[in-house]
Amino acid sequence: MPPKLNRRRALFVLTKIDEILSWERRTETERDTRFVELGRYLCEVRSGQYWRLENLKSFDEFLERRFPESRRKAYYLMSIHEHLPPQVRRELKEVGWTKGLELAKLARRDRQEFDCATWLHKARSLPKEQFKREVEKELTGRETEPWEIVYFKLYKSQIPVVEQAIETAALMLGSDKSRGYCLEMICADFLAGANLDNPDLLLHSIARCFGFLPAEQQQAFVAHALEKAS
Hints:
single chain, mainly alpha, about 0% strand, extended
C-alpha cells in the first residue's frame, strides 16, 4: 500500500529540492564566468611574466603552485581566452567552460572563418557529451565510437606516476589527444611487449594503434609491413 500523502511535508521537500537545484545552477553560472576571467588573467601573467614578482623561475612553476593537482586545467582556460572571440566568451556563462574548451578547438582551427552563431547554438542546445562528439566529428571527419566511464581507485602515492605517464604520452602523441586515448596507448605498448606469446591480443593492440594513425602514416605502415612480409 502506498503511504498516506503528507501534502504539507511534500510541498516543503519539493520546494527545498527546487531551491537547491536553483542555487546549484546559479553557482555554476558564476563559476563559469569566473573561469573565463581566470583564463584572461593567466594569459596576462604569462605574457607579462608576473611570476617574477614571487621570485619564481618560470610560468610553469607559477602554475605548479596555483594548480598543484594538474596544470592542464589552467592551460584549458587560457586556450579559451586565446582562441575564442570576445562575443563567444561572453556567452560562456550560458554553455559552461567545458563546452567553451570544445569551441576553442574549432576556433583555433578555423580562425577568422569560425562560425560562432552555429556552434554557439549547438553548445546551448546539446548535452555536454553529445556536443563533444559533434566537435570531434567536425574536427576528425568521422563518428566517435561508443564510450563509457571506468572508475578505479588509486592511492595518493600512485597518482604522480600515472599523471606523469599520461602527460608523457600526451607529449608524444599530441596535446589534442584525450587522456583516455593516451592511457590506451600506454596499455597497448605494455601489451605489445608482454604478450608476444598471445598473437590475437597483440594483433588487437596493433590494430587499435593503427586505427589512430593519419592516412599517410597508415599507408606507410602497410607498405612497410608488406615489404617485411615479402
